[in-house]
Design brief:
single chain; alpha/beta; Rossmann fold; 7 helices; globular; disordered C terminus
């Protein structure tokens, strides 16, 4: 298979070979990195999956994290703009959903096509005040409790002083960015929303609000689990794989068996 040159450091796992039919760019949650989506590269043979790596995260720990939504969106758009030479999807998880929505506005303003669909997971619609609005300025002890409540990090890591010295500045930057306002005009592509049945941060009822932010179709799907249901819901990857194929009008025989 012909390999596309990697666009480091934003795409540490690349975004598929040169002969893929389409691509999907994945935008992580606050504090998360590209590795959370690395396994998805095998979900569909015709779709090149490109997990985005934010500055200050995982392989980019030596870089300062970005606190500005405008700066983050602009930099991601610079990276993928030249790679939108075929249909594509955007997938945003939690904070990544907000970034993805803002990214579409940026790309369309540049005269580039909107994605075939935006898939958003575990985040309220963009007109709702972010749960992270005040978290960036909390004292360390209170910020740790916020993170415990989200459930994305093992408790033992939050009790590790060295780990917290590394991760808390990154979380503050991510929460500050997530609190920034974004363009609220509807986007001209379908939105597929994923919600965790036990997610108190972005319930299915909350996520129904995404319907007003598209001029196209809207679909809401609920999964067993809390805020990080992507790690625990047994049917999550199968559902995502099917939605990827349907959004890009790929036939069922392209699907990889589980």
């Amino acid at each position: 298979m012909i390999k596309m040159p990697l666009t480091q450091p934003w795409l540490p796992f690349g975004d598929g070979s040169a002969d893929v039919s389409a691509r999907m760019y994945c935008l992580p949650f606050a504090g998360g990195g590209a590795s959370n989506f690395a396994a998805w590269r095998k979900l569909h043979p015709a779709i090149g999956v490109g997990p985005i790596q934010y500055p200050g995260h995982e392989t980019r720990l030596a870089e300062p994290p970005v606190r500005s939504m405008k700066e983050m969106v602009g930099q991601i758009a610079d990276v993928i703009a030249a790679r939108l030479d075929r249909p594509y999807l955007l997938f945003g998880y939690s904070m990544g959903a907000r970034i993805a929505f803002a990214l579409i506005h940026n790309l369309v303003a540049r005269g580039l096509p909107a994605p075939a669909a935006l898939i958003v997971a575990a985040h309220r619609p963009p007109d709702r005040i972010s749960n992270a609005l005040h978290a960036a300025d909390l004292p360390d002890a209170e910020l740790k409790e916020v993170l415990r409540n989200y459930g994305g990090m093992p408790a033992e890591l939050l009790d590790d002083d060295d780990f917290c010295a590394m991760i808390l500045p990154v979380m503050r930057a991510d929460f500050a960015m997530a609190a920034h306002a974004v363009e609220l005009a509807p986007i001209d592509c379908p939105i597929i929303a994923y919600a965790g049945a036990q997610d108190t941060k972005a319930s299915a009822e909350d996520m129904k609000g995404w319907a007003t932010f598209t001029t196209g179709a809207f679909h809401l799907k609920e999964f067993a689990g809390g805020h990080f249901f992507l790690r625990t819901a047994p049917d999550f990857e199968a559902r995502l794989k099917a939605d990827m194929a349907a959004s890009l009008s790929l036939t069922p025989e392209h699907l990889v068996s589980d």
